Recover the amino acids of this structure.
C-alpha cells in the first residue's frame, strides 16, 4: 500500500470514528478521558493525521458498541465490505424504503456501467 493510499485510509477511518463519536453524543474530550489519552490525540485520529492501531480500534469499537469491522468496512474498497456496510445502512429501514433505495442504486449502477 502506497503512502498516499495509507494517508487516504487514515482520513477515511478518522471520519468514520468521528461519525460514530457524534452518533453517541460524545465529545473528543470525553473519548480522550475514557481512553486515557489527550484530546489532541483523538483530534489527530479523526483528522486522519494518525492511523489508529488495532488495539485502539478495538477500544473505540467497544466504546461505540459496534464491531471493529464496522469501523473498517465503510472505508474498504472491497465490494463485499461495501455490501456489508450498505446492509447495515438498510437494516433499520422499512421494506418500502429499502426497496426504493435498492431500485435507485440499481438504476445508478446500470447507468454508470453504460458510460
Amino acid at each position: 500500500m502506497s503512502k498516499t493510499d495509507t494517508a487516504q485510509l487514515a482520513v477515511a477511518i478518522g471520519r468514520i470514528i468521528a461519525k460514530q463519536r457524534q452518533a453517541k453524543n460524545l465529545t473528543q474530550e470525553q473519548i480522550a478521558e475514557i481512553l486515557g489519552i489527550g484530546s489532541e490525540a483523538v483530534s489527530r485520529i479523526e483528522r486522519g493525521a494518525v492511523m489508529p492501531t488495532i488495539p485502539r480500534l478495538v477500544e473505540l469499537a467497544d466504546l461505540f458498541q459496534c464491531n471493529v469491522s464496522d469501523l473498517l468496512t465503510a472505508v474498504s474498497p472491497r465490494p463485499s465490505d461495501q455490501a456489508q456496510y450498505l446492509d447495515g445502512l438498510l437494516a433499520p429501514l422499512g421494506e418500502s424504503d429499502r426497496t426504493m433505495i435498492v431500485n435507485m442504486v440499481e438504476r445508478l449502477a446500470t447507468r454508470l456501467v453504460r458510460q
About this structure: The radius of gyration is 17 Å. The chain has a mean pLDDT of 92.
